[in-house]
Predict the 3D structure of the following.
Amino acid sequence: MRIDDSGDARALVVDETFASFYRRGEIATHCVWDAIAAPILWLRPERRRRILILGLGGGSVARIARALAPGAEIVGVELDSEVVRLARAHFDLDELEVRVEIADALEWLRAEVAARNTGGRTERRFDVILEDVFLGRGDEVHKPDWIPDPGHRLARKCLAPGGLLVSNTLDEAPRVARAMRAAFSSLVSIGTEDYDNRVLVAGGKGLSGSALRRKVAESPILRGSLPILSFRTRG
């Protein structure tokens, strides 16, 4: 695990994969993290109240989420305490006012659902869940075997009615997309130029690639990233 500095840009590298990117004074990364956060724009401003990030890393997605939803409660779940330490020391994580939970994402979801089932957290539903969980090293990075099931099934139980479930995927995109399409009315795929990632966005009726693209084009925060992003409605 290391911090790579190049000019005014800084990257967090974990197991030889880029876990976060930060350029002081800028919000957008012009990279995959913009695609992960972009679906927040689909929600009306009054629906951007509670955001869950599974796989917080150094906070790249959280920084964009905070800009798109200034008043939201943001919860970030991160397995590695050293990642969180580095994010606080080098990526200004504390400025984002994220409630950080150091935990395994699957176990955190299980505990959250269990608490809700006993009536302990009935109000704690999220308007959008951004899932960016990976395992492995370098070119062998992949989703854990609990995604999409039971991970996404548990996540749906934590989602507010009309909310969005977002998953950053690589080679496993087809099987994750099938599971998400079976559980939601609409599914959109966002690609990023020069990256193999496919960000899958699942939600209710009306969500489409063209509609989400228009939202990004209207955003002063993310419109600069539009040339590197592609949007496709998946049937």
Residues 28-233 form a domain with the Rossmann fold fold (CATH 3.40.50.150). The first strand starts at residue 2 and ends at 6.
